[in-house]
Amino acid sequence: MLQEAAVTESKAVPDMLTGADLLLEALKRENVEVIFGYPGGAVLPIYDKLYDSKILHVLPRHEQGGIHAAEGYARISGKPGVVIATSGPGATNIVTGLTDAMMDSLPLVVFTGQVATGVIGTDAFQEADILGITTPITKYNYQIRNIEDIPRIVKEAFYIATSGRPGPVLIDVPKDIAAATVTEIPKEQEINLPGYQPTLQPNYLQIRKLTEAVSRAKKPVILAGAGVLHAKAAEELKAYAEQQQLPVIHTLLGLGGFPANHKLFVGLAGMHGCYAANMGLSECDLLINIGARFDDRLTGNLQHFAPHATVAHIDIDPAEIGKNVPTEIPIVADAKEALKELLHQNALPPANREWLETIQQWQEEFPYYYGESSMLKPQKVMELLYKKSNGEAIVVTDVGQHQMWAAQYYQFKKADKWVTSGGLGTMGFGLPASIGAQFADRDACVIAILGDAGFQMSTQELSIIQEYNLPIKIAIFNNQSLGMVRQWQEIFYESRFSHSKISVQPSFVKLAEAYGIKGYIIQNEEEAETILTEVMNSREPVLLDFRIDPDENVYPMIAPGKGLHEMVGAKP
Predict the structure, then answer these.
(1) Which residues are marked as active site?
(2) CA pair distance 476, 455, nearest whole angstrom
């Protein structure tokens, strides 16, 4: 339980200020530049003050779109995404986004309206127990009951969301609190949360233990997760891998934390990871996990995961260490600080030349591949998107086959260029998240890689793209199905395609045109080459409807219950 800070002195002000005034002033002190919000009755006092505010407010067409946009903004900017939703259905519509942000460690500060304090608990119109609903899916949540607590609570919320392992924090604001007035502004206070003290610096003895383990190892690997990116530790990771000549394997969310064109980069691991990465984890004798969760899509069957390895795990969240995989060398710390200490050890690299040669041989013998066809291959499209964007784009995906093809074929050379829904796997995430990413970096080339099914879950957010003329390139991998569901039904359910084929679709091009956005249907490689050359460098939004081979599957693949070494489709 967080301990409230002691009440301190206040200073007089000439005019009456409302709770909404205090809230907006608190947001300004946190340097909030953009809010993704949707008005409703319970938040009207806040929106009345937003009318004169200089903070940019972006109106999504659905609250879930707004919170996914805030996630994309947070992932690229590194700053908290800020969301406002009204009470009841407005608040419950953001539950999926809160869960998504919690699982993927994205900092959000979310304000929900609430019915007046006098009727809370009476099933009043548009009342929902949002604290009870969101307790398991937020890092922390508050309900404001005293107007004078607003500045303190907002300040604490931003601190909690961004420190330690990032995550979403929710603040529930009853309507009468937002409309109440004060004659004094509570004086700004220092953060005082004795029950919340994230450990940033690593234990020196554990660092020494890891250093000694590296010096003895014959087959060491680094597994780099999103924690490297959240800690802004990409340069330290690169320096350490080079110093010790350690091969680097990535989780899905960790892509970009180590350059894909580096000789020590092995590739993506997990269910659809490359052969070299999965075999590297299966055969290693020392596994150094930096900021990854050891989730089931990465590990496969835990009985077969890294069976020969001593496991070291660096993570700022102590709850993750030893949760799924027994860990011999636990290091609770910020990834950047831990890597700095490891670099300072300046130990001699391990004798692992044969191991590096073995990994290189795996890479050469078992690369990603796809067959020739008269139809448009999704892997080829991804290669063209990489080529035409010079590998410099911010890539945002929805969830499904296209997500995996992006992870496999778009080679991320820099950090903070990759936005995807990993832990929750939220369809409908991609389009609004690309909007948030573009607001975070208005000069960037942003590519939204979507499936035709996921795109139809959030098409209404095209209106924001048109309204702000966001130059997002919307690449729809259209196979007229729920692609990954169809793939599993083909492989595991005897091709019984139960409700996974989409026989009726709108014209995506006409839909885009209805929003004032150019659209193209692309049916073969020649058209893809020509049109991408034309549109990729433009500063206007474009929708690209790629009619890909509807029977194409994502390989390699590890079936449920199998180990990483039991890949299918790793070789033609």
Answers:
(1) 63, 125-126, 175, 484
(2) 8
